[in-house]
Amino acid sequence: MDVLLVEDDAILAKDLAAELRECGHQAQIVGDGRLALQALVDRKFDAVILDRMLPELDGLSVLNRMRAEGMTLPVIMLTALGKSADKVEGLEQGADDYVVKPVDAAELNARLMAVSRGRQWNMPENDTISAGDITVSPLRHRAWYKGAPVVLPKVEFQLLAELVRNADRVLTRAMLYERVWDYDFEPKSNIADMYIRRLRLKLMEAGCDDPIVTVRGIGYMLRA
């Protein structure tokens, strides 16, 4: 794999790049967020290993910019910030995996291969899906309302994509937990309701009349 390694610690970056090459990958190193975005424009990569704490532009900002611009390549966040809230934030912003330093080459290689396989398995047959004036592209992780882009974090995008796929059909909370969060149980918290509220606000900010119908005691439906 051709990997972009975004790490401001020059010694660590050099060591990781050498280890990745031993695993059969090519690795280009950049030391800050702005250089990372420029490298992604200049060259095609298969994956990005992204430090969260970066000069110029931090890792989350780089990730947000990538997803907003339709870059769907796998991203592994590699960081010293290991609290549960930090991991959740990184994954919600669109990271495919979140690894806390230090990490050895074998584990990093395994995670690279896993996120790459996941992207291939989840590749949709069609590029875009529409329901009314809302269009989503699961392949490019992008959404539009009446042709204008709507920027959404990872979970909210996946939630919208599932609603669009099933427009005018009621999805129970259990179905959403299984398809969006990959849960095989319904948690006691109201996490689905919370994300629906966030999604509604984002769509309304984009000029869309609230298209999500709450079916009391059951779940939600997107009006086409």
From TrEMBL:
DNA-binding region(s), residue ranges: 126-224
Coiled-coil positions: none
Residue(s) carrying 4-aspartylphosphate: D51
UniProt-listed InterPro entries: CheY-like_superfamily (IPR011006), OmpR/PhoB-type_DNA-bd (IPR001867), Sig_transdc_resp-reg_C-effctor (IPR016032), Sig_transdc_resp-reg_receiver (IPR001789), WalR-like (IPR039420), WH-like_DNA-bd_sf (IPR036388)
GO function terms (MF aspect): phosphorelay response regulator activity; transcription cis-regulatory region binding
UniProt KW DNA-binding keyword: yes
OmpR/PhoB-type domain sequence ranges: 126-224
GO cellular component: cytosol; protein-DNA complex
Entry keywords, A to Z: DNA-binding, Phosphoprotein
Domain named Response regulatory: residues: 2-116
Listed GO biological process terms: regulation of DNA-templated transcription
Record flagged with keyword Lipoprotein: no
Protein origin, superkingdom: Bacteria
Protein name in UniProt: Transcriptional regulatory protein TcrA
Organism name: Edaphosphingomonas haloaromaticamans
